[in-house]
Design brief:
heterodimer, A: 111 residues, mainly beta, five-stranded antiparallel β-sheet, B: mainly beta, four-stranded antiparallel β-sheet
């Protein structure tokens, strides 16, 4: 089992749609969680951290369920500019903390 | 302040040659990561440095790959006897600690011909 697993995608949605990304992680000792965004031929950049209480930033909502070892990202009213790959990121503890990236889910938002 | 800096940004090399890739992390960042990303693929973990601890080399794909970091400064990733399958973007990231967000450099695009 991979340490961090994401929906394989790609997701193709029309503008204005709501889209949800899901991610599971295997290490229950993981301590911090993030969603990153990667545009084509660019480096990944932090989109938002994920807190146990859930957090929202404009059209983006991130949630964490520690009991189920599950993280989600919801994008409401999607824009063309949201088209990118979304990466689930977990700081795990496998012989020492390190940052583990999921394979990413590609999103295409179409007019 | 300055972000993570990688050099060169692009490198074309002949099969069998050695290459050295450089990463300058953000000042004060104790953690440093190297990842590989092949075209259209996800990030592949290579190696992780945390302060003065022994590096986590579990992601290095073969003994042709090695990396060094002196203290909390510059890191170099060396690939010996390059093969065509080594062609990829090599990304370096640094973070303030082991559980904080990672910041990426723009990567080195390696092409082995």
């Amino acid at each position: 089992r991979k340490e961090v697993e994401q929906d394989p995608g790609p997701f193709n949605v029309p503008e204005g749609a709501t889209v949800a990304f899901n991610c599971t992680y295997s290490n229950s000792a993981s301590q911090s969680f993030f969603w990153y965004r990667q545009d084509c031929r660019k480096e990944p950049k932090l989109l938002m951290s994920v807190y146990s209480s859930g957090n929202e930033d404009g059209r983006f909502t991130a949630q964490l369920n520690r009991a189920s070892q599950y993280i989600s990202l919801l994008i409401r009213d999607s824009k063309l500019s949201d088209s990118a790959t979304y990466l689930c990121v977990v700081n795990g503890n496998t012989g020492g903390f390190k940052t583990i990236f999921g394979a990413g889910t590609r999103l295409f938002v179409k007019a | 302040g300055a972000g993570v800096s990688q050099s060169p940004s692009n490198k074309v090399t002949e099969k069998g040659k050695d290459v050295e890739l450089r990463c300058d992390p953000i000042s004060g960042h104790t953690a440093l990561y190297w990842y590989r990303q092949r075209l259209g693929q996800g990030l592949e973990f290579l190696i992780y440095f945390q302060g003065n601890s022994a590096p986590d080399k579990s992601g290095l794909p073969s003994d042709r790959f090695s990396a060094e970091r002196t203290g909390e400064s510059v890191s170099t990733l060396t690939i010996q006897r390059t093969q065509q399958e080594d062609s990829a973007v090599y990304l370096c990231a640094s973070s303030l600690g082991s559980v904080t967000e990672a910041f990426f450099g723009q990567g080195t695009r390696l092409t082995v011909v």
